[in-house]
Design the sequence.
């Protein structure tokens, strides 16, 4: 079976983290987001990966190369995101067999992908709390006969999760009409597959779409918790690792450091002395966390420095960020209500009572900077010493 992995999107809701990195390449535990899905497809027995790329395509090509984990990799380019059928159509010339379509910004539990592949043709389904917001499955016994978009009074809470396996013949059906919202949509291709094939559904045990920065935190919470602790780097005798902590080869943990897992300290990272790292934290390659720093439940991307006396909680720091001494992230509102963030110009609740900041690549904060909960700093922002930043920059 071939797997078409959609990885062309820019991820505008994930800005500024996607200023230089396509969303599917953002880090989730020890690999890029979309590599979790590629790995699940390989574990399920796919014999070819076809990556649909577009925005910052080179980052994807560089990571996967011509062969990934023993499986040949082909690329198809989608320059404009005109819809999911349009994206799969970009891969047309590579398709010659049954094929799976998986989304490079969704996380699936690998066992469900295996089950999907074993029951082809099929689609994935998920039990949603509010099915009226989704495409709800119409079933006849075990067979899916259609998907109704956002019905007012659905009979079931089973909604389509997007990922599917289509018969090879469907490659000829990708040239669909534009939908009402002006896109070429895979759902229209699926309608024909439902009519001409017995399509089954696989209920996903766990699934999430990663669209906004706090969902990147959630994705990391999921995948960091799945890592087994191991120490390959150097850990000083007077440092303490509690719970599942991975210290990769080439990472250094100095005396007086406490790391509470789940945590992943990647190769080349340097922590301490006397630092406290806790709760689902990823410290990327070459990250430096210095004396007296506390980092909690955060994603800190490659090359970022938080060198001294700073606090970072429930935050996502991009690449090559530098925090001045005593930079403090506030991650809790006095009124205890969920922290909001501005996403594409709209204030949105993150649903998280504890939520810190999102910092774009290359940002530098002056000493004693205070950052309010939910603040987003664009790539390359500079703050002055002693500044209190309550609004996005
Ligand atoms: P979206 O989340 O709609 O788009 P995006 O990933 O660029 O993010 P944002 O909305 O924040 O800008 O896309 C959902 C998935 O479908 C994602 O895996 C990308 C894929 N997709 C394509 O590959 N091509 C397309 O034309 C469209 C519309 C989506």
Sequence:
């Amino acid at each position: 079976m071939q797997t078409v992995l959609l990885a062309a999107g820019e991820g505008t809701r994930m800005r500024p983290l996607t200023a230089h990195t396509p969303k599917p390449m953002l880090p989730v535990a020890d690999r890029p987001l979309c590599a979790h899905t590629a790995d699940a497809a390989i574990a399920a027995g796919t014999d070819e990966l076809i990556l649909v790329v577009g925005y910052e395509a080179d980052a994807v090509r560089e990571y996967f190369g011509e062969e990934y984990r023993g499986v040949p990799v082909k690329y198809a380019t989608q320059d404009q995101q005109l819809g999911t059928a349009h994206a799969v159509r970009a891969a047309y010339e590579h398709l010659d067999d049954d094929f799976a379509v998986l989304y490079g910004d969704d996380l699936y539990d690998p066992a469900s992908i295996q089950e999907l592949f074993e029951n082809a043709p099929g689609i994935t389904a998920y039990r949603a709390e509010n099915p009226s917001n989704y495409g709800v499955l119409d079933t006849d016994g075990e067979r899916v006969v259609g998907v109704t978009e956002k019905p007012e009074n659905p009979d079931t809470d089973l909604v389509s999760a997007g990922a599917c396996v289509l018969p090879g013949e469907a490659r000829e059906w990708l040239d669909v009409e534009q939908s009402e919202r002006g896109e070429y949509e895979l759902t229209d291709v699926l309608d024909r597959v439902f009519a001409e094939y017995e399509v089954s559904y696989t209920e996903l045990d766990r699934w999430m779409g990663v669209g906004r920065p706090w969902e990147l935190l959630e994705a990391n919470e999921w995948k960091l918790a799945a890592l087994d602790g191991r120490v390959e780097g150097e850990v000083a005798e007077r440092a303490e690792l509690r719970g599942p902590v991975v210290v990769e080869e080439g990472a250094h943990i100095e005396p007086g450091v406490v790391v509470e897992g789940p945590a992943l300290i990647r190769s080349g990272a340097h922590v301490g002395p006397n630092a406290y790292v806790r709760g689902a934290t990823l410290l990327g390659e070459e990250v430096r966390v210095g004396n007296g720093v506390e980092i909690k439940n955060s994603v800190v991307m490659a090359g970022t420095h938080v060198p001294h006396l700073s606090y970072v909680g429930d935050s996502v720091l991009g690449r090559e960020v530098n925090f001045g001494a005593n930079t403090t992230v506030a991650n809790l509102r006095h009124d205890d209500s969920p922290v909001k963030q501005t996403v594409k110009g709209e204030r949105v609740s993150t649903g998280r009572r504890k939520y810190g900041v999102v910092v774009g690549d290359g940002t530098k904060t002056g000493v004693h900077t205070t950052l309010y909960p939910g603040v987003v700093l664009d790539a390359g922002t500079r703050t002055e010493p002693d500044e209190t930043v309550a609004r996005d920059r």
